[in-house]
Amino acid sequence: MRNDENLYKIVKDKICDRIYEGYHENGDRIPSERELAERMDVSRVTIRRALTELEGEGLIQREVGRGTRVTFHNCGHPGEADMIVLIAPARNPFFSRFIQLFQDHAEKKGALLLYVEKPRKEMLEDCLYRLYKRGLRNVVVWLEDIQPDPRKLERLRALGMNMVFFDSDQGLPYADCVALDNRRAVSVLYGELERKGCRKIGYIGWDALAMYSIREREEAYREKTGGKGSQMLCRISWQDKEDREQIIAQTLWQRRERLPDGVICGDGEIGAAVSGALGRSKICLRIGAVDEFSKDSDGDAVLYRQDLDTTVERIFACLEEQCGDGGDWKADLYRVEGMLCR
Fold first, then answer.
1. Under DSSP, is residue 213 helix (H, G, I), strand (E, B) or coil?
2. For the packed helices 124-133 and 150-159, what is the interaxial angle rounded to 10 degrees?
3. For residue range 36-61, what is the model confidence (pLDDT) as tens digits?
4. Omega before 173 cis (within 30°)?
5. Distance (Å, rounded) from C-alpha 128 to C-alpha 272?
6. pTM greater than 0.85 (yes/no)
7. φ, ψ at 331 (rounded to 5°)
């Protein structure tokens, strides 16, 4: 029989693998010590030590005469927020500013920040589990166009991972979510365009309505107009991002006789595309956009900028609460107000 001091850790990892992969669901009973020892070719002492650690972490519950049962707890996991992993899309226009603020705040907190680019081929949850197995338990995720599997998020939370999602509500109820107050952003832009004399205000956004900010901003616009008065000029396909300015220019030209006085743009990328299209077409249209962009036309634009400083502070506060509160933590969605830039 092998006598390896770290062998129980290998056994523990294998049990965790089975739980993460869904072989053992919440409430399921796992094989007995004898069966596990035979399957893994280790001593029952090794199995017992691995199970003792898992029980101490709250992942299993051993009942005399009834075996061992898997127990999922949707709670914070006590520890130090001294090492944080940020998973984010490097190609997003906000990336450089966001990660710089994140790095600055981490240094103030005495935390080490590790950056991982948003996975392209690997599933997000598998990436998180890989980090978990390396002892990295505090993560911040910027989803963008990724759709997470809630069942795997539940397992990651139960295994011991503290998570915060940025610009999304899809981590609920297993992760805190921090995002711009999109409804307020659209409402403020709408009011500012009205103040500037716009009587009819349209909207241009993306078609990827599964994404939190895209969906919320369009819904906020429709609520503001009462549905009946809405003028959805167009939705740009997420797959046609590179051609957005040309698509918008064609739309504006085709509808030039029926255009509103102003338009709210779903984000800065669309705002920049509208600005560029107006600069070439000689069409006059006031622009209101969520997020900043460089203006290529003489059009009058009002922008609603995200308060990334406050956002980063809120994200760190969420992680600290998860690390400190343990069983008292409950996932929540935190909406951060931005600011109008005229």
1. helix
2. 10
3. 999 999 999 999 999 999 999 999 99
4. yes
5. 34
6. yes
7. -65, 145
